[in-house]
Amino acid sequence: MDQTKQEEDYGYDLFPERKPRTKKLTLAQSLFTFNHKCQVMLNFAMETSPYAKLLLSAMKNSGCQAFKDRHFSCEDCDGTVSGGFDAASSQIVLCQNNVHQQAHMNRVVTHELIHAFDHCRAKVDWFNNYRHLACSEIRAANLSGDCSFTNELTRFNFGLKEHHQECVRGRALRSILAVRKISREEAEKIVDEVFDSCFNDHAPFGRIPHSRKEAKFANRDYANRDRYYANL
Ligand SMILES: [Zn+2]
């Protein structure tokens, strides 16, 4: 090592925190922080959200146990997307740059787990059959709490009893249009064709969990159902 190089180093290699900060380092650090925060919130969702817990046990019982390290990935995403399910790799993507609150994380994890559950239990043709995609989007919007009263309340959309259905329909439409290049008319037609049967398919919840409390009850019922089968 030549003398100049050695002098320039000033031994900072031993104390990385004391290195003069560059723009690049700051960016890397902020990414690390986002990623770390995303992992922490994901852990918390998997361990405490009754929605996520029920879906995770249902997947395990269907032979598709989801592992945090293998089936979830915190990444930066474009635009305002919060998450996605990559059917090709069976991975749930969580958008670390767009999800900053625990309640939001819980909903995204739940929404994507419903897609993962559908992927596991049925032979879903995500890429060629738009009705399959539409059905899973309807179920995800209906059962994840995306359209629950408090979420709608904060969006100033409360009022009608049928509003839940309208919210589910609208969200399913937006999700399809975000990922597939089809016209709005075409998407509306497909959603309306499958709406009733998919809206009424509440598996694995058994009912629409409109609140955390209802999801807790559903989770307890599910666990008991499980125990009953286990004793047969
Ligand atoms: Zn979705």
TrEMBL record:
Biological processes, Gene Ontology terms: mitochondrial protein processing; mitochondrial proton-transporting ATP synthase complex assembly
GO cellular component: mitochondrion
An annotated Gene Ontology molecular function: metalloendopeptidase activity
EC number: 3.4.24.-
EC supergroup of this enzyme: hydrolase
Matches recorded under Pfam families: Peptidase_M76
Transmembrane segments: none
Keyword flag ATP-binding: no
InterPro entries, alphabetized: Peptidase_M76_ATP23 (IPR019165)
Top-level lineage group: Eukaryota
Keywords assigned: Hydrolase, Metal-binding, Metalloprotease, Protease
Family: Belongs to the peptidase M76 family.
Record protein name field: Mitochondrial inner membrane protease ATP23
